[in-house]
Specification:
With 256 residues, this protein is α+β, with helices and mostly antiparallel strands. A 4-stranded antiparallel β-sheet has the order 1-2-3-4. Helix 2 crosses helix 3 and helix 4 packs across helix 5. The longest helix is centred in the N-terminal third of the chain and has 26 residues.
Length: 256
């Protein structure tokens, strides 16, 4: 009898499985996509990045425990910077404030308007009508400054780089500063806009400036009440008044 020879040896990399109901045939190199990503370069980079962030958070927490004052200062600065950046006024708010100030001055009589307030508002309105107002936001605050020409002007002087204003002249061109939702120069100029300083320039120096303490003082109330009292003259004052009356006719005759 001839003995059967050895059968064909299975090739490397193949797995023999029996076929039958319920049997599975695994594929060579099988695995989920997530496993391939996690074991690849991208997965290693993500794990190292998360580890760095976790270490940084632990260091921050440790620093807060060791130096709470310094941490509170940094948090206050960060919160203040966030509030300032969120309340930076825009160019539309400046135009609205300018028109509101101009309308408030128009409601006042020319005799009671403050000259400084009216001059400042009129200057801004002239620049606005000429298209020379410029707005610039600087993250934490904003600036409004004047330009020499309109943005759409086609003049040679407006586009030649050698004729443009220098940076050293820029501080003189600043008109207003916007900070925390307010335009501070315009607000300060509109303070006491209904008080005309020219009306008081002929008064004595001590009467030109009146503080709130003077307006509500007891001495002022006393003087207000005394003006309704009758005037009582002393004998000396009466004699002096009679002498002055007698001397007036004599002086008139001498002058004639």
């Amino acid at each position: 009898m001839v003995s059967p020879g050895p059968g064909p040896s299975p090739s490397p990399g193949r797995v023999e499985t029996t076929s039958g109901p319920g049997s599975e045939r695994p594929m060579a190199g099988s695995g989920s996509r997530w496993q391939r990503i996690s074991t690849g370069r991208l997965g290693l980079w993500c794990r190292s990045l998360l580890q760095d962030y976790a270490d940084a958070c632990r260091d921050v927490a440790l620093g807060v425990k060791e130096q709470p004052g310094k941490a509170g200062l940094y948090l206050s600065l960060l919160a203040g910077a966030t509030v300032c950046s969120r309340h930076v006024p825009c160019d539309a708010s400046f135009e609205s404030s300018l028109l509101e100030a101009s309308g408030a001055l128009l409601l006042l009589s020319p005799w009671v308007r403050n000259g400084s307030s009216e001059g400042h508002v009129q200057h801004l309105m002239t620049l606005r009508n000429q298209g020379r107002l410029r707005y610039q936001s600087l993250v934490f605050f904003s600036l409004v400054y004047q330009a020499p020409f309109d943005a759409e002007a086609a003049l040679y002087q407006a586009h030649c780089k050698h004729l443009k204003p220098r940076w050293t002249d820029f501080p003189a061109q600043i008109l207003d500063v916007g900070f925390l939702g307010r335009w501070w120069v315009l607000s300060s100029k509109m303070k006491d806009s209904d008080i005309n300083e020219e009306e008081f320039k002929h008064l004595p120096e001590h009467l030109r400036t009146i503080s709130s303490r003077n307006l509500h003082s007891a001495a002022n109330e006393k003087l207000f009440d005394e003006k309704y009292k009758p005037v009582i003259l002393t004998e000396e004052q009466i004699e002096r008044a009679e002498k002055e009356e007698q001397q007036q006719p004599l002086q008139g005759a001498l002058n004639q």
